[in-house]
Amino acid sequence: MRAPWRDLPSYYGPWSSAYSFFWRLQKANIWDEILKHGAIGPDWEQVMVDATIVRSINMERAQRG
Question: How confident is the model at residue 54 (pLDDT cuts 50, 70, 90)?
Answer without folding.
Answer: low
